[in-house]
Design a protein that fits this description.
Blueprint lengths: L1 H39 L2 H53 L9 H13 L2 E7 L4 E4 L12 H7 L4 E5 L3 E9 L6 E10 L1 H52 L12 H51 L5 H31 L8 E5 H18 L3 E6 L4 E5 H17 L6 E8 L3 E8 L33 H11 L3 E7 L3 E9 L5
Parallel strand pairs: 7-9
Antiparallel strand pairs: 1-2, 1-5, 3-4, 4-5, 6-8, 9-10, 10-12, 11-12
Helix pairs in contact: 2-3, 2-5, 6-7, 7-10, 8-9, 9-10
């Protein structure tokens, strides 16, 4: 039983390992294909391909054109040379009356020599279309009537390449004094010698092309490596930064493009670091702001629990303090939820035409009781009726926070001035006050979450430190802008610009 069980186990394991081997082999093939495909899509391969095309294509075109030109010029030169020899021979034939009496040893010798030199065949035809002489001796005394011969008797000479081995031409035999055509020379010469020379030239050309092409291919591969090297340095730098092994700025200034990429990445990296620090500070601030009311409530509750027979007056006082801390906690959470909503995409906006004059009048009406406690005068100055496409709820929250801050951080018997104006494209809202003002070094930070300008009085002035962050988010989500100017001890002005027509 032990042996059979063990064999059974082994028999079950073998297919599993075989399947694993097959899967490993398939994964190896897939990985290899991915590597090849990745290389084919890489910048290095495309630069290499462009360089190879730029090297090989002109080189091959020049080689083929040169070889073709050499062949045509060699054949043309041979044809011209044979035609000149045939004209000389034609004069000799007329002068010796060879067409009437083909028995001149001098002419026969010339014919034999000429056909031997050019490895060809010469046929002499008289005006009766009878073959007077054939250097091959095959068609003598026979008639030869062809289109080329007839055309030559009419004065039209022919010169053409027959197949790829011969040049065929017709040359008229003319009398010197009357220019009468009395015969035709039908000449066929071999171009095998020209072909042999071209083959040698072609072999030499291909040898040169291959050697030169291999050298240029190696040079193109090396050049593509050099050209892509700065990009690979950027990739390695990004990988090191992404893995956390490096916090240095990326500096690759080989090309203008790599320099610009490095600069833009460094800007983004700086923004990310600032954002990360801002998030950490935000989490710390949120923890602190939420923990403070809870700590106060715990202290008050522990005080009540540790005391026996707590008087009703003290009990009511402590419970009132606990209720205030709960209200403070609730306000912080409400403002945080409002800020989260502001950070959502613009697709969640409820855009509709809103009368901005009525909106600002309603905001000031709601806040006048708060301003009355410090005897602060509130004025709305509207230069013209303004209707804009906005999210009424978000802008109400934004302008409420701006005006409420102008009241909170104002002095007794001060004033808050709100103005509304517009042009053909934007509407403008300014919230000005006669308050304590903001130090110049704090102007860049007042829109940060939980930032307080005067931390020593932050506990005295009711608020969560999120109002300006909420206002800025609401303005930015409308594709607007918000700016602040202030003089310490004189007052602060917030300027808001928002498009009249919302553009998604």
């Amino acid at each position: 039983m032990f042996i059979s069980e063990d064999c059974g186990k082994r028999s079950r394991r073998i297919p599993a390992s075989r399947n694993t081997f097959i899967r490993s082999g398939e994964w190896a093939i897939i990985s290899r294909h991915r590597i090849i495909f990745s290389y084919l899509k890489s910048l290095k391969f495309r630069i290499l391909l462009v360089l190879l095309v730029a090297v090989w294509l002109p080189m091959l075109l020049v080689a083929f054109s040169i070889l073709r030109s050499c062949e045509e010029r060699s054949i043309a030169a041979r044809s011209t040379e044979v035609q000149n020899q045939c004209r000389i021979l034609s004069n000799q034939l007329v002068g010796s009356h060879y067409l009437e009496n083909p028995s001149s040893d001098l002419v026969d010798g010339e014919l034999t020599q000429l056909s031997g030199v050019y490895d060809g065949r010469i046929i002499i035809i008289n005006q009766d279309f009878r073959v007077v002489k054939d250097t091959y001796g095959l068609v003598e005394s026979k008639y030869m009537v062809s289109e080329e011969v007839i055309s030559c008797f009419k004065g039209d000479t022919t010169n053409q390449v027959s197949g790829s081995r011969f040049i065929e031409m017709t040359v008229p035999i003319q009398e010197t004094d009357s220019a009468k055509i009395v015969g035709v020379l039908l000449v066929s010469i071999s171009i095998d010698g020209i072909r042999d020379n071209l083959e040698v030239l072609t072999r030499n050309a291909w040898t040169f092309l291959m050697v030169y092409g291999v050298l240029m291919t190696v040079a193109a591969m090396f050049l593509s490596y050099l050209l892509v090297r700065p990009v690979e340095r950027i990739i390695r730098g990004l990988q090191e930064i992404a893995s956390g092994h490096s916090s240095e700025d990326l500096e690759v200034r080989t090309y203008t493009e790599t320099r610009r990429i490095s600069e833009e990445f460094n800007k983004i990296s700086m923004q990310m670091r600032v954002l990360d620090e801002s998030r950490q500070e935000f989490v710390s601030n949120v923890s602190h702001e939420l923990k403070t009311p809870i700590t106060s409530m715990k202290v008050l509750a522990d005080s009540l629990l540790t005391q026996e027979e707590v008087p009703n007056e003290l009990y009511r006082e402590f419970m009132g303090d606990i209720a205030e801390e709960i209200e403070r906690e609730n306000k912080i959470i409400t403002d945080l939820l409002s800020l989260v909503k502001m950070d959502k995409k613009a697709a969640t906006l409820n855009i509709e035409p809103v009368d901005m004059n009525d909106l600002l009048e309603l905001i000031l009406k709601r806040l006048r009781p708060i301003a009355a406690k410090k005897n602060i005068e509130m004025v709305l100055e509207s230069f013209r009726p303004v209707t804009a496409e906005v999210d009424e709820g978000r802008l109400t929250l934004a302008f409420t926070n701006l005006v409420e801050n102008a009241i909170k951080y104002n002095k007794e018997n001060g004033w808050v001035h709100v103005s509304l104006d517009a042009d053909h494209k934007f509407f403008y809202v300014k919230v000005m006050d006669s308050g304590m003002g903001i130090p110049e070094e704090s102007l860049d930070y007042i829109f940060e979450r939980f930032y307080r300008v005067d931390k020593s009085h932050s506990s005295e002035i009711d608020g969560t430190g999120l109002g300006l962050a909420i206002a800025k988010s609401a303005v930015l989500v409308h594709k607007g802008a918000i700016k602040v100017s202030s003089k310490l001890g004189e007052g602060t002005t917030f300027s808001v610009r928002i498009p009249l027509t919302y553009i998604a």
